[in-house]
Putative malate dehydrogenase 1B
Amino acid sequence: AAVAMFTGKADCPYYAKAELLADCLQTNLPSFRVHKITQHPDKWEQWLHDICETNGWEHRESPIIWRELLDRGGKGQLLGGLNDFLEYAQKYYGITSMMLSEEMLDIAEENLQEHLEIAKEDEEIKSLIKPMQIWITSASVPICYHLIPLLANGEVFGMTTEISIHLLDTDQFKEILRSMVMETEDLAFPLVRSIVQHTKIDQAFIDADVIIVLDDVLLNLEVQPLESYIREVSEICQVYAPLIEKNAKSEVKVISSGKTFANLKATMLMTYGPSIRPENIIAVATSWESAAKAMLARKMSINAAGVKDVIVWGNITGSKCIDLSHAKLYGYNSALWGPPNFQRPLLKMIYDSEWIDSEFLSAQSTLSSRVSRCTGMLPAHAVATVLRYWYHGSPSEEIISVGILSEGQFCIPEGIIFSMPVRFQNGNWEVMTELEINETTQKVLGRLSHELVQ
């Protein structure tokens, strides 16, 4: 007895042709048994390499077809690819396939969509069996108190994804952590499998899927110089990074937030944790984005949700630039009206250019002061928003600012964490390098880059 095994890339037209011929043989020949496996195109090469290495085969293309000899303990006998199978079917059964190329492509597209849907269902089932592990450092701070309900309500990770929340802080804050644990349990969120407090650093980040770093230092430059605070942040990250490498999952996502040194914390985690994927460490700039949008909305007498594409460049919790050159207004009450997606360039709608050049620019320092004094709602919402975009994608064509490792985009020096415009898609982010930057902004970016490097 034998089973014919058919495996190929989900979007491969040759696999589509082979599987339909196999279905035909199975329907007409009771003794002909078929088992089909599709692989995601991104995972095909590695899967093919592994199966060939295990069985001692030589095969380089999709599909790969073999016979499993059940009476010999499941030993595999390689048949080959599509052409080999067509010859086999013609020789032994007198059957071949006359499928046209267009039909092959259509079925390949259907196979890919079906594969993605099945993979998504599998991930949802797995997430119910083993919840996502979310770790929050310095968890006694007010931001965390506001963040827990946002993570727990299902909007960030999905309405079918259970989570386990881990609150990490020092022993002196254990009573605060205990109160937060009990209050969260009292709220009985359906998607919160567990919430646990941790005060022993050696237990940190075990199986972590997401790590939210909220550690802050209380800046008082009259008491000690800036270098001392930088050293303090560096020492914290020097402890965290090796533990993340040792205990967290390989694809762990790390978010640096808080009121101070957001860029520096991300930089230090990369420095002391070289095996952590650099693209999986980002710093959150959304609080400053949101505060700027609210200020503009008050000037324009519209809802802040109608202000889009404000860009935050530079050192998020330090020297930065709020760029309005791409900003847009939606739902603005003017002579021209349109559907909900109708937008107008913000700078063309603000006729008081002096307000932009004087009040708005001078208010940026006040804005930073106000954001840094936030009790927790705004930065918590910023973290939750960025995480939701990271897992589910950001709105189409909308600009999101986050601190990422520069690769030289916009002439920013490589190797520094710098806030810049990105979009989130399919669990990843990409820099919106297609945006045009005017000469004035480019000079500002040069100055901000120089300050960060220094």
In short: The longest helix spans residues 101-129.
